[in-house]
Amino acid sequence: MPHRIAFIVNPRAGAGNPPIEPLARLLANEGAAVTTYRTDALRTTADIDQALGRADAAVIGGGDGTVNSMIASILRHAVPLGIIPLGTANDLARTLDIPSDPLEAGRVVLAGRTRRIDVGQANGLHFMNAAGVGLSVAIGERLSQAEKARLGVLAYARHLWRLLGRGEGLRAEIDGDGLRLRGRVVQVTVANGRHYGGGMTVHDGAQIDDATLTVLVVRPQSLLTYARHILAFRSGRFRPDAPVALGRTTRLALRTRPAQSVALDGEIRTTTPVELRVLPQALTVHVP
């Protein structure tokens, strides 16, 4: 069990008003020294590094975007990560089977069991769940914090359905280990983990510690075709006639015409062309 915990909380995650004080008391129950930081007080990388430099574990209370914003510093300081899922999607917590109840998630940290997992990298920036181009970016641009707080993961589904019927996608060129694709797509997802986009499953066999990236390409089709396969996007079990292409790789180059924004764990962080790779077993996390 860690002795000095940097407890970093996003007070605006999810519906807001997270149980900060009860969580801090819980984490201190076993004698650990807990220092609580609000994300709005950690404005720079230097602020985050200073907080983590005083700790032997980082516990992040927030959603996938909050975790993503801290990953580079956590890797630099080589401290284990505990996750309190307070966001809307919480895809990383879902991948790791971390309880959705914040206090139960805190008890996972106290239990002390850890696991080494992979981290994805896109143009030198880290991601835990997935990098996305196309629909995922368009949805992220339209989602407001108030809408996520009010509707939860249904907010993602609402915008997804509205956008699927528009346009013919974008032209993409994808090259990886034994993977080559040219043509029009509506979405490219390069996943490090299993879940993305508020509970979607990239593939039923994907794991976050398998030293590979899973590539899911969605081709332009009619709304009726997408509707026939909607359950497959949730389960990650696609039939041969699904409007998708799947592959696995350790490295990937993605080019689009025209250039597109790239979302990492739901936040727009870079643009195409983008070079992606997996960093095997790079991070230690607390798990049930």
UniProtKB/TrEMBL annotation:
One GO-annotated biological process of the protein: phospholipid biosynthetic process
Keyword Cell inner membrane: no
UniProt keywords, alphabetically: ATP-binding, Kinase, Nucleotide-binding, Transferase
Domain DAGKc stretches: 1-126
InterPro entries documented for this protein: ATP-NAD_kinase_N, Diacylglycerol/lipid_kinase, Diacylglycerol_kinase_cat_dom, Lipid_Phosphate_FormReg, NAD/diacylglycerol_kinase_sf, YegS/DAGK_C
Listed GO MF terms: ATP binding; kinase activity
Protein known as: DAGKc domain-containing protein
Source organism of this protein record: Thioflavicoccus mobilis 8321
